[in-house]
Amino acid sequence: ADADGDTYGNPAASIQACSAPVGYVADNTDCDDSNPAVNPGAAEVCDGADNNCDGVIPPDEADSDSDGFMVCAGDCDDTNPAINPGVADICDGIDNNCNGQVNEDCDLPALAENIRTTIIALPCTDFKKNRCRFRTILNKKMLAIKYALMAAERLSYKPNKQRRLYRWAKRKSQKVLNKTDGCHNNGVPDAKDWIDECAAQAQVDPLLRQLIAAIDLLDD
Question: How would you label 90-107 residue by residue, b for 16+ Cβ within 10 Å and e otherwise?
Fold first, then answer.
């Protein structure tokens, strides 16, 4: 039988006759007789199916990370569901959206400001010994980093001075990270952490790592 009218028949639905009745063809090699786009004469397309009935799905039609994007559809890292053409690019030194560019339109001062506002939104109880002064100090440090990055962006005509500012901002960002990374490194806050709740650290730590990675790219 050729239920889908593609001139290729269903091997599971055959009859013997001197001539083919209506709806039947002499061929019996269709692997999906419900879809006229699938048969031995069809070309493979990027859809994750065996379009030409050769029993093989091309490797680039896999979606190994289950992010909804196949390699043939532009997924440039099929091991990481956070990297595909459907995500937004972030300041982390990675081509997140697979467009061949890294950190396009990455606004470092805005990222520093996001970190600062995230920190000041945390309750005092998330800080070491429940002391708000640690939050105040981190707030001031991130504000200084933000202003340094803003100044650096205006100094493209003075590359040496610009580079010094980026390096200063990176060092200061690393120092802030050192006060918030115990849970990331060890699973629990450590003695040097000023934020001593893992849930709170999880809001700040990834953003700081993005900022440091993005500054690294500009300082290359």
Answer: bbbbbbbbbeeebbeebe
